[in-house]
Every structure is written in C-alpha cells, then in structure tokens.
Write a structure and sequence with these properties.
By secondary structure, the chain is α/β, with parallel strands linked by helices. It folds into 3 domains: 177 residues, Class I glutamine amidotransferase (GATase) domain (Rossmann fold); 119 residues, NAD(P)-binding Rossmann-like Domain (Rossmann fold, 3-Layer(aba) Sandwich); 215 residues, Dihydrodipicolinate Reductase, domain 2. The chain is 29% helix and 29% strand. A 9-stranded mixed beta sheet has the order 2-1-3-4-11-10-9-6-7, sandwiched between helices. Strands 19-20-21-18-22-23-26-27 form an 8-stranded mixed beta sheet. Helix 2 links the parallel strand 3 and strand 4. Helix 10 packs antiparallel against helix 16 and helix 14 crosses helix 16.
C-alpha cells in the first residue's frame, strides 16, 4: 500500500502554503518552478500567466506531461488545450461539487454526495467530445464541469480555486491531490480489510463508518463476549468472529486493526499488531505515557505501517465553527481560551472512572478538549499546571474535579476544566482575542413523548451530546451568532482510507497525539504535586 512519490512542478500565484504542505505530506517532491522533467505540472491561479510561460506549459503538455490548471479564469490558449469554451463567470457562492460522468476514483470519499466550497467558477458553453468530466456543479438545474481531463492534450482543469477560504480548506487539498493522481494514471490500492479488537461502546460507531466508507471493509471482530460479535454482524453479516486477540492478529484476512481496549493496554496491543504487520488505529487516549507513545511511533515508522489515534471529536460541528472563526481572524490574535465539560452527577461505573486503567480524569475528556487546544495552538507548551479534587464520589478512583492550565511560550494560555461537581456549569468555550471574544453555551436537548398510559415522558440528553451555541462578541459591543453546519460524514474513516489507498496525509498524526499525551502526563504530575508547573516532555 505504499503510494508512489511523483515529482510535481508547481507554479502558484495564490496563498497556497497549506495546499503545498499537504502535497508534500503525500510524499510528492515539489519543484516551485516550471520543470519539463517533472511527472506533472500544477498551476495554481492561471489567470495572469506571462505569454512565454503559457507557451512553455503548452509545450510540456504536448510532450505528454500532464498539466493541471487550477482557478476559474485562464487564457483562450489554455482553455482551447483543455477542450473548453468558458462562458459567464459566476460570483462567489457555495459551490456544490459533485461527481461527474467520468469521475471514477476522483470522487471516492469526496465527502458524501457533494463537497461544499465557497468559490466561483465559469459556466462552460462547450466541452470537446474527448474531455473527461470528472466533477460538476449544478446551476439552474444544469450540471457544468468544474474538473476535467483531456488525455489527448494532457491538460486538466479545476475551475474552482480562487478564494483564501478554498485554499485553506483541507477538503480542497485532498481534491487537488486526487486530481493529480488521476492525471498521472495512479489507482487506489485494494480495499482495506479491518479487524476490530474489542467491540465496546464505540464499536457500532466504527462499524457503521466503515460500512459507509469506500475502500474500507469490516472483516473481523474480536471480543470475549459472543453477543458483541453478533452485534457487529448487524453491520457486516459475514464478519469473522474471534474471542482471543492473538488469534485476530494472526488472521491473514485483515490489513488493519482498530484497538478498542482499555487505555492502559493500548501500547501493548498496538505494538503486537504492528509486529504482526497490521496498520493500526487506536482509541483515544493514545496511551498513558510519552514513553509508550514514542515506542509505538518508532515501531510504526520502522515497519512502514500507518498508526493513527481515533480523535473523532476533532470534527465536532461546534469545534469546527470555532476553529474557522479563529483561523479567519474574527477574534484578532487569540490569547486566552477556557473550556469546560461536566455537571453534578455520579461518574460512570466503567473503567473510565478507574484511574489505574484510564490514566485518571484528565485523560478522559482531556483526550478531546486538550486535543482541541493543541490543534488550535501549534506553538510550544512552556509549562502545564493542574489541580484535582476528591470530595464526593469516593467509590471511584478518578478525581471529581480537575483543572488544567497550559501556558504557551508566546504567553497564550488555555484552561480546561472537567467536573462531576459542577451544579452550575461554565460555558463550553470562552475565548478572548485582541479584536473580540467568543462564548460557546451549552444546549440541553430532550425528546418528549407519551407513555403507554398517556403520561409525559422526557428523555434529556447529556449536554455534551449537542453542539454548543456559539456567539462572537465584537469590541464595539455587537454580537454575532455563528452558524454551526453539520459535521462532514465519516471524516476520520475517509481520511484513513485515503491515507492507506492513495497516500493522502491524515489530519490527526501520531506526533500530534503524542503531544496531547505529554500535556496530560505533565498535568497529572502537577495535580499530584499541588499544582506545581511541569514542563511536558518534548523528546
């Protein structure tokens, strides 16, 4: 499943650093000039190329080197070579990109039935008969091509790609990578056969996502409880069942193992799976200590296998909206963030509340909330301080209330509180920047129905099950409620399949997950020492 590493010549007039980083992470070698010896040429922003550059591009294409032109506007000479006759240029709007008649693998794992990009594109008045229509967008009930490939001239186009929002969008990065693979004639690897080690509370989530993701197949499930294996067969009737983990790892019918055992066993099972030659996805938290994380990362690198941590909440709808606002500069320079989860209730009675198995309370929700913090702030964590209270729930070993403070090298601070003693909840998010602030308020959702005898029944969901209401407060006192669109479908599993089948990098990296473990380990040490600041281990 090792992806080829093409040499790409890239010409850009766009702020495309994020896209170029993505292409580099696919293994491609980038040459930021027109190089006729490259495997393909990618032109980002083809609207104002010098005539000599256009002539050189056409000569390269005529010699058989694929040229991908990205952007809504380009010269008549280039559109002639692409086999297109463009018409009216539409204004910037939400473009719904969909598979075209010749999409093939370009549209696999596109993002559901369509991919939404805020951009513009030209209507096409005519398309040559020998042009492949890879992707389309609908205008007035008519499909118009927005991605094409003309093998006879070696010229491809992607006619969306002009706004900063588009060039910052990871989905756009993956789309460009897929088009590059298409023009190079590269095909995805065979489907990945997945085995699940443990089929607990998260099992159905994985099984459903695998079934909905092109390129993944649920082939085996291992759990000592035969009823859980049978539950998995609701999603994959032909799944192979095992009761012993060693038997699963020895099974030749799987390529990847999802380790869904308690956290204190993660490192051991991951290392055994890698030794058995399997790619691995491990549930969060990654492990308990940085030393365990380092051993797993080193083993995966040595074996040339994929290792990923299932940070599923990286794609929570409210976090994505918050991240978008921060990245867009809506708050100015963000310097302070607080986050909170909890309420006043007895902790769960499973291993989550057993510090010896889970790592402690900081590792539970901290696996998500601190992952968000570290995703937002890439700068070095200078020190971590934490406190913990044990005051009410003495039948479990996790702390009842914990607070973690991260101090970054540039002075930015982030605080995370998890409490089972919070009769009064704090907001989920409280963010301050130099131009404004943001508050994410909890929502209490419920379903009201009738009992068989007509009484009112109300099923109240945990507040953590609903996205927060987000409001941006400007310096002038105005308030703007942020839209919180639904999250993309199966985002982690689609990225996983892309990584294994086409070499596209994942958003969640083992190194990023290791950084989270380093912070949680330091916070646990600090809490045990009365809040003394601790420097997270860096290497």
């Amino acid at each position: 499943m090792t992806a080829p590493t093409p040499r790409l010549s890239v010409l850009t007039s766009q702020p495309a650093d994020a896209l170029l980083t993505h292409l580099t992470r696919t293994g491609a070698q980038l040459v930021c000039e027109l190089d006729p010896t490259a495997d393909a040429v990618v032109v980002l922003g083809a609207s104002a190329l010098p005539e000599a550059t256009e002539d050189a591009l056409l000569a390269v294409a005529a010699a058989g080197t694929p040229v991908l032109l990205v952007g809504p506007q380009m010269s008549a000479a280039l559109t002639d070579a692409a086999g297109l006759v463009p018409g009216r240029l539409l204004p910037v709007h939400v473009v719904r990109v969909r598979p075209g008649r010749d999409a093939g693998q370009v549209a696999d794992r596109l993002g559901g039935e369509e991919l939404l990009l805020t951009d513009r594109f030209p209507l096409q008045e005519k398309v040559a008969d020998d042009v492949q229509e890879l992707l389309t967008a609908n205008v007035a009930f008519t499909n118009h091509p927005v991605a094409t490939w003309r093998p006879s001239t070696s010229v491809a186009t992607l006619t969306v790609g002009s706004t900063p929002e588009t060039y910052a969008d990871p989905a756009f990065h993956r789309l460009v990578h897929r088009l590059v693979r298409h023009v190079l004639g590269l095909q995805d690897a065979p489907p990945v056969r997945v085995g699940m080690l443990g089929y607990g509370a998260i099992g159905h989530e994985h099984a459903l996502a695998i079934g909905l993701t092109e390129g993944l197949e649920l082939a085996a499930v291992c759990d000592p409880n035969p009823l859980r294996v049978e539950a998995a067969r609701e999603y994959a009737p032909d799944v192979r069942g095992f009761a012993d983990g060693d038997d699963l790892l020895a099974f030749d019918g799987i390529d990847l193992v999802i380790v869904s055992t308690p956290p204190n066993t993660h490192a051991d099972w991951v290392l055994r799976a890698l030794q058995a030659g399997k790619h691995v996805v491990v549930e969060k938290p990654f492990c308990i200590t940085v030393e365990e994380a380092d051993r797993q990362i080193a083993a995966a690198n040595d074996a040339g296998l994929t290792l990923a941590v299932y940070q599923n909440r990286r794609w929570d709808a409210d976090y994505l909206a918050l991240k978008k606002a921060v990245r867009a500069g809506d708050l100015g320079e963000v310097f302070h963030l607080e986050s909170f989860v909890g309420g006043y209730d007895h902790p769960c009675n499973f291993w989550h509340s057993d510090a010896g198995i889970s790592g402690g309370a900081i590792y539970d929700w901290g696996s998500h909330y601190l992952d968000w913090v570290l995703d937002l702030f890439a700068q070095e964590v200078e020190w971590v301080s934490a406190t913990a209270h044990k005051r009410v729930w003495h039948d479990v070993t996790n702390a009842d209330h914990t607070r973690v403070l991260l101090h970054f090298a540039d002075g930015v601070e982030a605080e995370f509180t998890h409490s089972d003693l919070a009769a009064a909840r704090k907001p989920k998010f409280y963010v301050l920047g130099t131009r404004g602030g943001l508050v994410g308020s909890w929502r209490q959702e419920s379903i009201v129905s009738r009992s068989p005898i007509g009484l009112v029944l109300e099923d109240r969901f945990a507040v953590s099950d609903a996205p927060a209401d987000l409001v941006v407060f400007a310096a002038d006192g105005s308030e703007t409620r942020l839209a919180v669109p639904p999250p993309p479908p199966q985002p982690f599993h689609r990225e996983l399949a892309d990584a294994l089948l086409s070499g596209s990098p994942m958003s969640v990296t083992p190194e990023g997950s290791r950084r989270n473990i380093a912070v949680m380990q330091a916070a646990t040490q600090s809490a045990a020492d009365g809040g003394r600041p601790v420097v997270p281990p860096t290497s």
